[in-house]
């Protein structure tokens, strides 16, 4: 286990102990179309076609949490300070991750060798984000995941969703380490940026369509 992960677990235990929270570990589990016992088999049953490989929203589980309060409120815990999250940081990687294990790579096991290399996998991820279903459901997936808890406990205390912004990115190694060049479709988050007067005016003009007239 990486040192980063170990220190993260230690911080989670510290927050639970100090806040009187119960350990409650949940991660999103998206149900996909296709046939098979696991998501990789389902993907292969659809010939790795990203247009056919769709989430079944009503059968998916979106809860993401590290702790539960005595009143049942759920919390995510991240070992970041507020200054750390002025820039986007990793939040979750809930979309199917297919990459070979070093010890099993190339041995013919379809679970590990479902894509011949990272280039094929990365093309699949790019195509997935261009499908009709992704354009229709990506915001629903995003909001269902981060709104499944009440907010984040950081090194500087609790931060509610109203003070955070979340978005999808394809992580190519900038937000967290990736395995052997396999890109990750990832949720990242940061503190909401305080806009200056000029920025607010530009947003307003764009909203009412004035700027578009002069492009």
Overall shape: globular
Distance between the termini: 52 Å
Low-confidence stretches are: none
- What order do the helices and strands follow? HEHEEEHHEEEEH
DSSP strand (E) fraction? 15-25%
Radius of gyration from CA coordinates: 20 Å
- Helix proportion of residues, in percent? 25-40%
Number of helices: 5
| Tally of strands | 8
| Biggest sheet record | 5 strands, mixed
Strand adjacency order, main sheet: 1-2-3-5-6
Mean pLDDT: 86
Give the tally of structural domains: 1
**SS content category:** alpha+beta
Could you describe the 3D structure shown?
The chain has one domain. With 215 residues, it is an alpha+beta fold. The N and C termini lie far apart (52 Å). A hairpin with a 2-residue loop joins strand 5 and strand 6 (157-160). The model has no long low-confidence stretch (mean pLDDT 86). The protein has a five-stranded mixed beta sheet with strand order 1-2-3-5-6, covered by helices on one side. The protein has a three-stranded antiparallel beta sheet with strand order 4-8-7. The radius of gyration is 20 Å and the shape is globular. Helices cover 29% and strands 19% of the residues. The chain has five helices and eight strands, in the order αβαβββααββββα.
How are the secondary structure elements laid out?
Blueprint: H1 3-19, E1 22-26, H2 39-45, E2 65-68, E3 74-77, E4 89-92, H3 118-128, H4 132-146, E5 151-154, E6 157-160, E7 164-171, E8 184-191, H5 197-208
Parallel strand pairs: 3-5
Antiparallel strand pairs: 1-2, 2-3, 4-8, 5-6, 7-8
């Amino acid at each position: 286990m990486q040192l980063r992960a170990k220190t993260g677990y230690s911080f989670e235990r510290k927050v639970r102990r100090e806040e009187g929270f119960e350990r409650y570990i949940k991660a999103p589990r998206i149900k996909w179309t296709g046939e098979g016992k696991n998501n990789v088999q389902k993907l292969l049953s659809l010939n790795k076609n990203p247009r056919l490989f769709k989430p079944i929203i009503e059968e998916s589980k979106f809860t993401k949490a590290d702790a539960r309060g005595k009143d049942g409120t759920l919390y995510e815990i991240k070992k970041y300070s507020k200054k750390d999250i002025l820039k986007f940081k990793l939040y979750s990687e809930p979309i199917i991750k297919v990459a070979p294990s070093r010890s099993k790579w190339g041995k013919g096991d379809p679970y590990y060798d479902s894509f011949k290399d990272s280039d094929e996998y990365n093309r699949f991820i790019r195509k997935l984000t261009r499908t009709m279903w992704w354009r229709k459901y990506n915001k629903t997936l995003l909001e269902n995941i981060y709104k499944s808890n009440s907010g984040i406990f950081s090194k500087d205390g609790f931060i509610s969703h109203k003070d955070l912004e979340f978005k999808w990115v394809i992580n190519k190694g900038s937000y967290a380490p990736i395995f052997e060049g396999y890109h990750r479709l990832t949720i990242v988050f940061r503190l909401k940026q305080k806009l200056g007067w000029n920025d607010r005016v530009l947003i307003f003009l764009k909203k009412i369509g004035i700027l578009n007239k002069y492009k």
